[in-house]
Structures are given as structure tokens and as C-alpha cells.
Amino acid sequence: MFLPIILWTDALIFVLLAVIAAFAFYARQHEHLRAPWRRVAQTPAAVSAAVVLLAFVAVGFLDSLHFRQAIEPAGNAEAKRPAGAATAYAPEVKSVLDVALAHLSSRTERTYSAPLATHAYAKETMEVPGRGQVRDYPRLRNGGAHLKDAETEWGWDILLTVFKGMGLALFAWSIAAFLLLIAVKPTAPAYASIGAFSDAVWRGKTVVPWRTVLITLGLIFLIVVPATLLARGYHVLGTDKVGQDVLFLSLKSIRTALVIGTLTTLVMLPFAVLFGIMAGYFCGWIDDIIQYLYTTLNSIPGVLLIAAAVLVLQVQMEASPELFPTTAQRADFRLLFLCIILGVTSWTGLCRLLRGEALKLRELEYVQAAQAFGVSHWNIMLRHILPNVMHIVLISVVMDFSGLVLAEAVLSYVGVGVDPSMISFGTMINAARLEMGREPMVWWSLASAFMFMLVLVLAANLFADAVRDAFDPRVRVSPRNRHMAEAAAA
Amino acid sequence: MSDTLLNISGLKTWIDVEPAPVRAVDGIDLEIRRGETFAVVGESGCGKSMTALSILRLLPETAEIVAGNAQLGATELFELTERDMRDVRGRRIAMIFQEPTTSLNPVLTVGAQVEEVLRRHGRLSPQAMRKRIVELLDQVGIPDAERRAGEYPFQFSGGMKQRVMVAMALAGDPDLLIADEPTTALDVTIQAQVLDLLRKLQRERGMSILLITHDLGIVASMAHRVAVMYAGRIVEVADRQQFFASPQHPYSRKLFEALPGAEGRGGALAVIRGQVPPLTAAFHGCRFADRCDFAYERCGQGEPALMPVAPDTSGHRVRCVHVTEKGRFPARSRPVAVTTGTLGTGAPADAAPLLIVRDLKVHFPIRKGLLKRTVAYVKAVDGISLDIAAGRTLALVGESGCGKTTAGKAILQLIRPTAGSVNFQGAELTALRGEALRGYRSDIQIIFQDPYASLNPRMRVGDILSEGLLALGVAGHAMNQPGVRDLARDAIQKRVDELLDQVGLPKDAQRRYPHEFSGGQRQRIAIARALAVKPRLIVCDEPTSALDVSVQAQILNLLKSLQSELGLSYLFITHNLAVVEFLAHEVAVMYLGRIIERGTVDEVLRSPAHPYTQALLAAVPRIDKDVNREMGSGGTTAEAAKQGELPSPVNTPAGCHFHPRCASAKDECRREYPGSSTLTRSHVVNCWKYPIGK
Amino acid sequence: MTAYIVRRCLYAVLILIGVNLITFWLFFKVNTPDDMARMQLGAKRVTAEAITRWKAEHGYDKPLIFNAEAAGMSRMTDTLYFQKSLEMFRFNFGQSDDGRDISHEIQTRMWPSLALALPVFLIGLAAYISFALLMAFFRATYIDFWGVVLCIAMMSISGLFYIIGGQYLVAKIWSLVPISGYAPGIDAAKFLFLPVLIGIIGGIGSSARWYRTIFLEEVSRDYVRTARAKGLAETTVFFRHVLKNAMIPILTGAVVAIPLLFMGSLISESFFGIPGLGSYTIEAIQAQDFGVVRSMVFIGSVLYILGLLLTDISYTLVDPRVRFE
User: Fold this and answer.
1) Among A482, B235, B618, C107, which is 20 to 30 Å from A447 by CA?
2) Rounded distance, CA A178 to CA A182, Å?
3) H-helix or E-strand spanning residue B313
4) CA–CA min distance A290, chain B (Å)
């Protein structure tokens, strides 16, 4: 019935998830990796941030399962079709999230409408039977369409839905909390019964701050469930200029942000690690070449290099449209390219950090002991250097994430970010930036993008901070590289 | 008593760490009199530095004084406000630290750092201030003080920096100077200089010194009274004479017995079994009971009090039930340690040489200028020759920077020599490359100084031990063939078990990570790693200098017994002459990249010929059995040679390298490097005092 | 020391050559003049003649690196590499697509950029250091804790929102300053006030937190304990000992940005309508004017490399350990 499509970025996301899973498996068996993660898990701010991040990741993951729907043959066309002929698929690539949010994306308005509005934002001249031409706020096609008398019922309806949603949220939350507590209950005799354990959780006495987890989860439920109920009848965050639901746009932007924030690092990681360790371990001419390489790349202002590369790509993509059968594939390729070029401009920081560390490690006595055994250089780098710099790699991956998400917004504003057809925070801001100047002001698009980004980036920053403190508070990941594009903005 | 300067009672300092606070200092009482040097001695982690920092209230943020008083004259230090406490610091109590290099501010001139104290604690006119700074620097023996006051700390050598620290401490004219391991980071000749300086200043000014150290030799040459600390408690207090004549506490006695030296040469050193107990829990008995050879049931029932040894010797008090309740201590002759016994004396001296090194040179180029041309060389190793016979130990002795470590690594080909030959059983190692060299890798192995840096923290002990086996294919040559692999794995497993047994570690150690082991245990692992490939010769690069004396004894015993069991040869690189005396058969003394004297242990250590060797020996603080001798009376013959410092190996002095520091330097010494003089068949020295050749 | 600086200069030239080659490869090899012409002329239905004509008009009708048709030296000089890429070393950037002289544009536009970027840099540096000092001085107290929380929150907000929010609040609601625009001379102040303020606020989060870690690292060093053992007051310890040491990495780290101040800031300038190099670059990117983008890449690299040189030199001035080497 449908044809699964794996876009380039989807594939890389799956690879990334596999890498994370493999790393988790590996870390479980290695105390030196498990201990710092345990410390992270004991930081309330970090677990709270992790829960929020997981919620975002869930949305992004649903948005990464792509497919093309089969075109339903109309009526009796079935009979006419030769047996065994290929099913025709819609040209449009959809994701699971699109299907789940179909009621949001399909019910568009003509233009702006405020959050939860029943009427349009601007007066229009319309024909009213019996009154002729009237200038008034027209009813929306979908927002509050279920109300007979919008003026009187509106407030109550919203209030009722919110209360209903909160009740439902609390109900769902208590089930989730119960399941969670059963799942994580330690076997220690002090927590023999689930009651004793939940009591300890309630008083905040557990090692992992489960109370914080539950509170965060509760807050998410309290926001998500009522919003879901409201979204059935209203545009919770309003609509934009072309009448698209802003909540839908915001949710779709999450995947773009996550892809930029993670794949960029994934793409550049092999180069940074390999070159950094090689430069530091071998010294001499190999070091000279690698240093020259990254100093040269570093000396081209990041934004300009990205701009130049993206411009060139645009030209190339326009020159050969046949490579990209659907707009989704085209946009996806551009996203991937953006990740790569962002990676090219951002690997130098990590590379330099690793070079310095490898330079120190190569003088250490265990490396010399290995040399005294005649262990090959490759094996020394793999067994002795790499495991001892992994914490730096990890720290820089988590610390880079938020910077990259912010960079996407700036680059999209400049016009060298993601494809204009791709929904992202950057394109949302770009489209909405003139709305602040309108009378009356249209604020909800920007406010939504702002809130979603703030929550995502703040959670990422808090989490990264805890990871850095747990693994090595002394590693100094310079902000200069992190906020390369941000620096251009400021 | 009116002559009491500082009286500490019931001091408890805890360090707040997860999961439970560490009771670093757990109720100590001590009294320091005016004008005396009071030494607190103990092994690392016993709380002696924390005691010192508590007195000045300079503890790190995690540590806290939880109980106790400290009375300085009429002042109760722990009740002062922070503001008033600052008037005490630097003015009434000054402190110098272990690491002069990091303890001075790198971006302020030395003069400015001394000036700060003067400005804080006194009022002087700018001219008077300037004069006083120069005067102070002059007083601590910094030559050309006027000019050097304007220089930065990095322009000073380690010993000179410590002198600056002393000058800073003196600037406030304190009543009490706390010296926390003041010479541990320094070389032995420099240490002698700094200790001399402290003694001299104390005599002149009559100030008290609280000396924190781990070195009984320093205590013997410096202290009036001694306190021994163990696990956060003082276990014995005595006058120096009483202490060295008859140490009472079993722990104090063990510290003496564990000291290596000539006496123990044939046998094994006494060791203290086990480790210092964790200080996180409360103790219910004597803290030393678990490790004590004399412990009996009473030791576990309540901690003994610090009681006078005998009614008449009020000054000598000890915390041991044997002494204070039973009134006497068990006879010393009782067999104390399992490892005691003869460990063999090594192979006969005339065995055929295993390793022959001739004219080995390692020069590092110094590149400067626009094109990075080589303008000079650091002559780290400048033509050394030595032979090591199978089953024998050659000690390579010298101060830091003399090139001994580089020489060791060059012999292993870890650093490629610039010139010379390293001949191992007929094979010229310097000529070998790649696979051919790898063939000899299993014959020569190395053990390093720092037990923390020498084991990869990310590898399990089992993997660390099998690394060499895998790399050199000692256990199985065909690891990649499927059928053989299991066989090889079994062989490796068996070998790892065997190795752990050999170095006295349990079998389950192989599944653990290095950080779970103490320093001594880690050094055992490092030894096992070297042994894994069945080497004939092991280069031991200061393997015990990072360890406490009781642990050092364990490692030295182990090395010695391995030598007699396996017939190993050692090239033992060290600066510690006591260790040399205990372990080595032959000795070579290095100075600025060259060997200046070599011979058998007895020849070199009993009748040193070279003035440098003489100075080196004289500089070692000795624990003299004649406890009544005047403190600090080092060998006067070599007094002059203790002056000055090791010159840089870039600009080596013309002629004999040692002549600028040598008291008996003559014209020819300044002109030309002396040739070898053969004193006996084995004793060779390079000095103009002796007829060349012969 | 002179030899050291001369060597760094030579290295800088080497890097510049590398940058030049990369940009040449990107702008002429990957993206051929034909592509450029096609894009400028718009749509896909362009005739071959139109392309040739466009190339001739804009001086792109030459071989890349070797002109086989020319004679003598001009075999080398009459090429795209020589005329479009090597000429940049003489700061001769040619003309933009709308026919203006790029060098002239750069010369006039860099002053407004500097007028915006310099105050941001100087006031910002002072503000960040003060804030970081405050946090470090009151380390492990609520001031420090909430300071760090504020920093993390502020660095979680995109710079775009600072600008949009600032414009809305200060310029639109309070009407204190014009929303955007620029005037030369002293009148610039009222236009620059808001962008400078926003530029400073936008950088507080990451910079202040970064400096705080540097301060804290210095606080934990041994010489600080020595200073306390002298009986010095905590303020003296902090401002005389810690500050002096911490300023070395902070100042030398900031020096690298000084030459780049001429480049201005992309986003700020375009939002506030300041006719600087930042907005020039953005306009060029949006108009897909490769000549201008190429020039800006080159200029940016030159300035960055200059910054690296200044960093090297500043180290030798600030740090006695390097100065006396």
C-alpha cells in the first residue's frame, strides 16, 4: 500500500541511532564510561533536559520514517489494470508524522489567524445575505468551525477542552508514572514494595532523581494533551500568511533542527578524530600538513564558506534537476549538503583539541610501554590514544549540538540554509520577520519558533553542561567554534 | 609552658566528598615550642599536609575544620574572623609549599611577590622596601639579588624558586614557618642547600619551623622533636634523640626497617603488609592493628591513648597498648614478615656481558631562527659506555636532567641514538629496524616511574598484561588462524594467571581496571607487563621514587626475588643512593650526559673517587645511629661541591663538566675533559685528580 | 623573537595561498563561468551565444589557468586564475555584477561596519569580563549559580530573536531610537545605539561563561594559595593574581577578532539597514553575485590571518614567559 522511502538523512539518522545503541552497549561494559553517565543521570537538570530532548527526538524520529502512498485506483480502474503492473505511487513523500498530523496540515485557512481564533485576523469585505457588503472579520474555515455561535461558546469551549485535557493528562501521567516506577524499581531490599519505592521517589531520596523525571513528564503531558485536544477544533498557535497551521510548522521544524545538530557532527567526526590523533601522535610532517589544512580552512570565515558552497550547490542543482525526482528528495539533499559543509567548517576545533591531547598522551608511559613491545602505530592509536580522548569527542558532540541548531536559523535567514521548501525554524523566522512590523502585529509565528527553539536548545545546553561536568570539567571547548554562525549574527 | 608557640588540640579536618566524608585529620594534639623545628613525618595520605593547611585555615573548598583549637600565643586561631586571620598569615605564620614551580605567580616578578608581603604587613618607604627586598633575596642566597628581583619565576631554577618562597615567607618576620615537603621536588644536592638555608635562618632568627616530610633522613638532620602521623592520628611524639634511638610504635619501627640500605643487601627489606585503611569510617581500635605484626585482641578494643613511654620520659609518648599498658614491647628479633629471608646476591661478577653499550649519544637539535636551522644540540646523552652481565644489576645514578632516563630509552631504541652502539648478545640494536628490531623487543623491557601514567586507564589489567604477548606473538604466532586462536587464547590466559601470581596479585585482578589499585599494586602490574614477554634485561626507570617507603620496600623485594628466580638483569635508573646500595651490584654515576665514575657498589659508595660522587653522597640526609651528633653536619669535605646547580646540557662547561661546582678544580679541569682513570679492575673515574689510564 | 614573527608572517602568506586555491577551485572549477552565466541570465532556455556574450562582458571568457592561444607571458597572465584570483592579492577585486567597483565599495562600506563592530567588541569585552569576574568572585554562591543559569538561558536564544525583540521593544514600543537606517558622522550614534546594545547582549551568554571557566581555572592554581598564605585579602588575591593570569588567554583570544571587525556583522547590519560590509555580503549572497562573495571570502581570510598574527604578537607582549624566550 505504500512504498518506504529512505532519504539520505533518514539513512544517516538510522546509522546515528545504531551508533548510539552500540555505544550504549559498549559503555555498559566499561566502568570508566558508565560512571560519568551515572553522574549525569544523578543531575536533576540533566535528567529533566533529557526527558524534554527525548520528546523532541520522538517527534523527529516519527518525521524521519518516510514513504510514498500508493495511489488508490479510482473506481473500476482496478479491473483495467494489467495484472502484475507496478503500483503507482504518489509523488509526494510523506512521513509518519505527516499522517499523524494530517488534520493540522490539511485544514488550512486563507491567511493569518491568531492562536485559537475563530475569526480571521484582518477584516475583509464580504457578502452577507441580507446586509450586502460588510467589512468584518470572517469566520475561519476550520478554526472553531464546530461552534455554532462562536462569540458565546468560544471561551467555554476552550476552557472545557483544556480542563478535559488536563484531566486526561493527569490520568495518562499516573499510568505512565506507575509503569515507569515498576520498570526502574531497584531490587534493593529497602524498596521491597512499590509503595516504599514511590515514597522514596516522592521525597526525592532516590539516587537518580526520578521525582524530577516524573515532574518533567507531567509538565509535558499537561501541555501536550490539552494542546492535542484543542488542535482538533482550533489552530492552537494560529496560522501563518498562507494559512498553514503554525503548530504543524513548528513540529515539522524539529526534525530539521535535530538533523542539523546531530548529522553535522556525525559527518565531521571521522575526519576530526583521525586527523587530530594522527597529527598529535606522529608529529613531524604529518602534523605540519594537518595543521596547515585546518588553519587554512579555519581562516575562511565560516559563514562565507558555507554561503559560497551553498550558492555553488544551488547552481549545480538547478543545472541538473533530473537527479531529484521529488521536492522532498531535493530538499533532503540540500539539507545533507548543508550538514556536510557545516561539518567541514566545524571539524577544525575538535581536531585541534584532539591533537593537543594526543600530543600529551604520546609522551605517557603506557604508550611508550606499548612501543617497547613493538605494537604498531595503528594499534597504539586505536587502543591507547583513542579510548583516552573519547570523552573529549563526546563532550564536543553534545556541546556542538545547540550551536548548530542556532546556526541553522541564521543561515536560513541569510538564504544559504535549508531549501526554502523545507520547514525549519530558520525558514519560519525568515518568513515571519516582517510580521512584527504589521499593524496589528502578527506575533505568533515568531513566538512559536522562539519557544520551540528555546526549549530545545536550552534542554540541549543543560544536558551538555552536565555531560561535560561528568566527563571532564577541564575540557575547554571554545565557544568561538561553537557559535561560528552566531558570531556573524551578533 | 611559657615557651609554647602553637598549641593544637583535638584538631579534626574532614574532606567532604561522596559518598562519605574523609577524616583526613582525626583529632590530633601537638605543641610547637619557640625556636624549635618540629617535624611531622608520615606516608602519603596520612593527613600531615591537611594539618598544616588547617593551622593557616587555607584548606581547599571541600575540606573543613570540624573540631579543635589552635592557640598561637594567646590567639585562638580558629575563632578569629577571616579578616583577623589574614593578619596572622604571612605575618605570624608563614608557609612554603612542595612545588616551587607552581606556587609562584608566573606573571609577577619575584621582587613584586616579595614586596606584597612587606606591603601587607608593614609600612616601609619605597626605597626602604626596595632595599629590604634585595636584602631578603640576598639572605636566602640568591646571587645578584638586585637584578634578579626584577626577573620572573620562570627565569629561576627549581632550587632558586624555593629560595624565593623562603624569602617571601621571611618577609613578614614570622614566628612560625610551616614547610610542607619543602625539598621533595628538588634534587638531592639542591635539597641539601635548601635544608642548610632553613637551618641557618632558624639559628639566626630563632623562629619555629613546622616541617612536614616523609623522609626520615630529613627529620634526622633537621628536627628537634618529631611526631609520626598515621591515618589522621599522631601515633608517636618524641625528641629527635629519643625517636631515633628507640622508636616505639610498631609503625615507626617499620618505617625504619623498610628503609633500603647496605645492611639489607643480602636479604629482604621489612614491609608493612596491606594498605592504609580508608579514612571514611570511624575506627574502633588501633588504626594500625590490621597491618601490625604484634596485634592481639586488645588492639581491636578501643583506640589506645597517646601515653608516655615511661614515667620518666615525659616527652616521648606513643599510642600503642604494648608500650603503654604492657609496659614493654615484644622483642624485635621476632620474625616479622613473611618475605624475610635471603633473596640471593645475583650472578657472579665475571659473567659474560649481556648488553654492551659503547659511546652512546643522544643529541636533540635546537632549531632557531627563520628557517629553523639547527643552532645547537641538547647533549642529553653524550657518549656513555656500560656493560651489564646476565643476572646482575647496574645502577645508573644521577640528578634530574643528567640524561639517565634518555639513556635508558635509547638502549631500548624508544629514542633512536644519535651515535654509538647498543649490542645485545651480539646483535647491534641501533642498526635494526622494523621487524628485525621487534624480534629483540621481548628481550629488553622497561618499567617506568609513575605508576599512574604507566598503565592505560581504559584497559583491563588482563588486556594490559596480554598486550605484549599479542604484539610479539610470544604466546601464539598464528592468532589469525581460526583453529589456533582458541589455543593461543588459552595460552595467554595461562600466562596472565602465572604473571599475576609471580608479582603477588590475585588472579581476579585481571578483570579490573588500573584505577582500582594502589600505587604499589600498579607498579606490580607494570612489572608483570614487562615480565610477560620473558625479557632478559629490564630497564627500571626510577620504579620506586613515586612510592611511599613501605611500598618501595615491597617493590624492591619483588625485583630482587625476581632477579634470583629468573636470572634477570636490571639497568636500574635512580637518584636514590639508598636504593642503589640495597639492590645494585655495579654503579655508574652520570653527570651532564656522561658517566663520571663507575665501579662496584662498594667501591663507588664506600670510597667515592669523583668529587661529584662525594658531593652526592654527602648531600643525602643520613639517619645516623649516633643521634647526639650536631644537626646538619654533613660531610664537610664536599660542602663546597654542594653549591651551584646542574648547568644546562646545551652549554656544557668547557673542560670537566663539574668544574664550576668543584671545590678542588684546577686549571686543567677548566681546559679539558678528563680521560678515564682506572683505580681498580672495576673502578673507573673521570677526574684530573687521578692519573689517566692505568 | 623577530625571527619568530617573520616566520609566522611567511606561514600566513602560505595559508593565504591555500585559501586562494580553495576559493578558485570552488568558484571556477566546481562552478564554471558557464553555470554562472546561465544562472545570471535566468531560466534554462539560454542560448549558447547569450552565455558567451555574458562571459565576455564580465571578463570570464578566458581559460582557467593556461591560455594556449596567447603568446609569451600572457599565456599565464591572460587567464581566469591570474586575472580573477591572483589579482586579489593586489586588492583588485574587479567589478560586481551590477558594474560597480568592488574595491571601492569595500573601502566605503567598511567604516560603518567598524562603527558598529568596534563598540560591540570593546564594550562587550569589558562587560563580559566584568560579569565573569562577578560570578567567579562569588563562586559557589547563589550569584554564581544564577549567573550561570542566566548565561545558559541567554545562549539558548538565537541572535535573531535578540534583534527582532530589541527592535520591537526599544524602537517600536518605546520609540527611543529609529528602527533602522544609518547616517554618517555623529548622527550615526542614534542608529548604532540599538544594534550595539543587542550585539553585546547576544554575546553575553557564551562569552561570560567561557571567561568564568578561565577565571575558575586560575583560582584553583597553587600560586593563589601562596598569595593567601601571605595574608592578602581575597580581593587583592583576585584582582592582582588571578585577574592578571586569566587576562592572558582572554586578551590573546580576543585579539584574533580585531581585524575581522572591519567585516562587520552579517545579520545585524542587514536588519538595521547599516550599509556595511556585512549587509553588502548578504545582498551579494542573495543576488548570487559570485564576484562579490569571492572578494569577501578573500578579505575575510586576510583579516583572520592578520588576527592570527596579532595573536602571536600579543602573546609575546603579554606573557613574560614568551617575551623572554
Assistant:
1) A482
2) 6
3) none
4) 19
**Whether B76 contacts B69, CB under 8 Å:** yes
Q: What does the pLDDT read at residue A280?
A: 93
How close does chain B come to A214, measured CA to CA in Å? 25
Do C7 and B120 make contact, defined as CB atoms within 8 angstroms? no
The Cα of B86 is separated from the nearest Cα of chain C by a number of Å equal to: 4
Domain-located, residue A286: yes
3-state DSSP helix/strand/coil percent for chain B, to nearest 5? 35, 20, 40
Question: What single-letter DSSP state applies at residue B329?
Answer: -
**B448 touches A: beta carbon within 8 Å:** yes
Please state the pTM of the whole predicted model: 0.87
Helices (H), C78-187: 80, 102-137, 142-155, 159-166
**Whose CA is closest to B230, among B17, B48, B8?**
B48
Extract the C-alpha cell encoding B362.
Answer: 643522544
Contact A96, A62 (CB under 8 A): yes
The length of chain A, given as a count of residues: 490
Does C20 have pLDDT greater than 80? yes
Count of alpha carbons within 13 angstroms of residue A279, beta-carbon side:
23
Residues in chain C: 325
When CB atoms are compared, the residue of B472, B513, B529 closest to A32 is B513
Q: Helix axis angle, A327-361 relative to A284-299, nearest 10°?
A: 140
Report the candidate in B161, B157, B114 with the shortest Cα–Cα distance to residue B135. B114
Residue C46 has pLDDT above 80, yes or no: no
Q: Are B217 and B622 in contact (CB under 8 A)?
A: yes
The rounded distance, in Å, linking the Cα atoms of B643 and B543 is 28
- Is the pLDDT assigned to residue B476 strictly greater than 70? no
Q: Check if C1 contacts B (Cβ < 8 Å).
A: no
Distances (CA, A) of C199 to C117, C118, C156, C158: 8, 11, 15, 12
Interatomic CA distance for residues A414 and A307, integer angstroms:
8
**Cα–Cα distance for residue pair A462/A475, rounded to 1 Å:** 16
**pLDDT over threshold 90, residue A469:** no
All domains of chain B in start order, with CATH: 104-173 (no CATH), 344-443+535-611+679-688 (3.40.50.300), 459-533 (no CATH), 612-678 (no CATH)
Find, in chain B, the residue whose alpha carbon is nearest to that of C6: B370
SS3 A81: coil
Q: Which of B83, B107, B121 sits opposite C244 (nearest CB)?
A: B107
What would the grid cell of residue A486 be? 552566531
Domain positions in chain C are 12-90, 111-318
CA pair distance A137, A112, nearest whole angstrom: 11
Q: Which of A304, A464, A330, A351 is nearest to A399 (CA)?
A: A464
C-alpha cell of residue A426: 530558520
Q: Mean pLDDT, chain B, as a whole number?
A: 85
Domain range holding A342? 254-471
B657 with B568: CB under 8 angstroms? no
Q: Does position B2 have pLDDT exceeding 60, yes or no?
A: no
